[in-house]
Amino acid sequence: MSDIVEKWGRPVAERGFAQVPNYLLLLNQFLDDEHRLSPVELLVLIQLVGTWWRKGDKPFPSMATLARRCGSSERQIQRAVNHLVAVGLVAKEKRRAGRGLISSNAYDLTPLAEVLEEAAKAYPNDYPRKIDPDATRRITARLGKGAAPPAPVPGEGEAGAEGQPTRRRPRRRLAIHQA
């Protein structure tokens, strides 16, 4: 822990760290173009992995929590989760609280672990210099069949009605929310 404290400072180190496999961070590198994940989908996966403490337990952050952590709308998170389920990286399970009230979904990340294991077998070197097309096909084949790629989000660089690119939102400065 002393290295972590030295690197990040005591207040950050005391909050804890999540275990995120490097193969998850590199996942898009191992998938063919039509199956690559959007930035929001990848960020949702990272957030889900960050809340997965034990193999037998399933993380269950709410859509609102994921949206807040990803800096996105709940609707975009719903689309991302639905696509991750459709391609077979995540299994979603409905949960019920006391008296049958609907609670946040639980997420089974076992399919993701299996895809990452396949990537690790195909690319034992953490940073392969050359991506093998056959290995990419094998990894992509583990994803759900017939799942359509996610629909583009309006305003993210596609051409507008007159063929002109749509305007992007101006970048905001990072501000830390005080609770």
Automatic annotation (TrEMBL):
InterPro entries, per database record: WH-like_DNA-bd_sf, WH_DNA-bd_sf
Biased composition (Basic and acidic residues): 127-137
SUPFAM superfamilies reported for this sequence: Winged helix' DNA-binding domain
Signal peptide: none
Pfam families: HTH_36
Ranges for region Disordered: 127-179
Biased amino acid composition, Basic residues: 166-179
UniProt-recorded name of the protein: Helix-turn-helix domain-containing protein
